[in-house]
Each structure stands twice: as structure tokens, then as C-alpha cells.
Amino acid sequence: MFACRFAILLAAFLAASPALAARCGGDFHAFVRNISAEAVAAGISQNVISQALSGVQQDAGVLAFDRRQRGTFRKTFEQYVATRVTPGRISGARAMLKRHAALLTQIEQRFGVPREIIVAIWGLESDFGKGDTGKLPVFRVLATMAHDCRRTELFQGELIAALKILQRGDLALSDMIGAYAGEIGQTQFLPSSYIKYGVDFDRNGHIDLRHSIPDVLASTANLLKTSGFRMGQPYGEGTANFEAMREWNRAVIYRKTIAYYADQLR
After folding, report:
1. Catalytic: 183?
2. Which end of the chain has fewer CB atoms surrounding its CB within 10 Å, N or C?
3. Per residue, what are the HEC states of 83-109?
């Protein structure tokens, strides 16, 4: 959900550190050279920087999309949930609960997040990996947004995080494909969240949130657990677990939709 990410991005912007020093605006290629120097200082190898940023160009479509975002829902909860939690999506989620029952049991035991919440998020974000997870080169998106002065500190940080994903070998450059704010994978993690919450649950040495269902679901659960979600407690509006889901999405309507969807699966 591209538009639903605006609230998270705004919150991250408000909390962003001004430590990164590349000057926004002006000549784009000069900006890329400056942010490349920041990446070196952050421990990124020159080879990785060259792979990711050599020849990178601004994307006017990304800027136009960003300008259209308002950060608010124009529909009521009832209108929104009717379009997002459809009978087909409920039956699809039930099929995923059955297909991945053993995996979800392991994740529940380790992270203490109910399977219905995890699968609801998975369904809303990408129709269980079968839907749209974005088609844009992540480094082009993030370089464009970092150069733009509206939220440069935030997106400079996301660009450095994306370079770390590439350097760690979690994803190949060809797999660094995402949405309009650089979100990656089946539950649409921003690169900084990928670094902070990603889990190698299939134990293959890589955190792969594009292809590995164990990594996708465990990382989603880890984000919620780290944010304070507690198993066995209510998660409706006004509860501590509802507040814990703010790290996923600050929009109340979206969190109510997650809770409603999960309730249909219980």
C-alpha cells in the first residue's frame, strides 16, 4: 500500500537525525557524489556504491507521486475495509493459514504475535506475495527522494540502509526493486526497517524479504514484537497492542483494518 506508508515516512522524518550531511537540491550528480562519500563513512564499500549508484538518474514520476500524497484517508473505515478485506482476500488468507500452519506455529512461539495478525498484514500489503510489491529500482527511488529537500534526512538514511542490504548480500542488485518510497518485499519494509527487524528465519545466511516466506513472516512478527505487541492480549483500537502496531502504520484506519481482517480469520 503506497499511500498508507506516508504516515510512517512522516513519523520517521520527524525523528530523523541530521547526521547525514549531503546537501539536498542543486545538481543531482553532485549530490550523488556527496551521498556516496557519506556511504563510505558509514562503512559501505566503494564496489557496492558503484554497483548501486553508478549512472543513477532522477525519477520525475517518483517526485510527482510523492507530491500527490496527503497522508490521510478520505474514506470512512467502513468504506475502506469493504474494499480491502474482501471475501476473496479472507478465503486466500485462510488458505495461507492452512498451508503455512507449521511455520506460523514456530513464529508464534518465538515472537508472540498471533498468526492471524501476521497473515492479515501479508494479505493487505501484497496479497500474500502475489500482488504488487512495486516495480521501481530502489536506488533510483531513494536517490531521487534523498536529493529532494522535503525529507532529505529521512531518505538519505533509507538510501544508506538500502546500500547495507546490498552489501550484506541479502538481495542482489537486480532484486532491489520496490515501491514509490523504496519499500521492499512482500510486506513492504522500508530499508531501515529491513535492517532493524529483518530475520533470517530459513537460516540460509540471507534475509530475503522478496522471496523467502519464512523470512517475510518472521520479520513482520519481529517488528511487532519489538514494538511491544504481546500474545494473548486484545489488539482492537484503544489497546496496547493497537498502539504497538503504530510502528507498522500510524494511520488508525489501517490498523483497524488489520485488526478487523485478523478477526475474520479467527
Report:
1. no
2. C
3. HHCCHHHHHHHHHHHHHCHHHHHHHHH
Query: What's the predicted TM-score (pTM) here?
Result: 0.91
- pLDDT tens for each residue of 48-66: 999 999 999 999 999 999 9
SS3 string of 39-84? HHHCCCCHHHHHHHHCCCCCCHHHHHHHHHCCCCCCCCHHHHHHHH
Q: If you count them, how many residues does the chain have? A: 266
φ, ψ dihedrals at 169, nearest 5°? 85, 15
Extended beta strands in the chain, E state: 136-137, 177-178
Q: Catalytic pick from 125, 158, 183, 247?
A: 125
- C-beta of residue 218 within 8 angstroms of C-beta of residue 107: yes
Give CA–CA dist 205/84, Å, rounded: 35
Q: Can you tell me the distance from the alpha carbon of 125 to that of 190, in angstroms, rounded to the nearest whole number?
A: 13
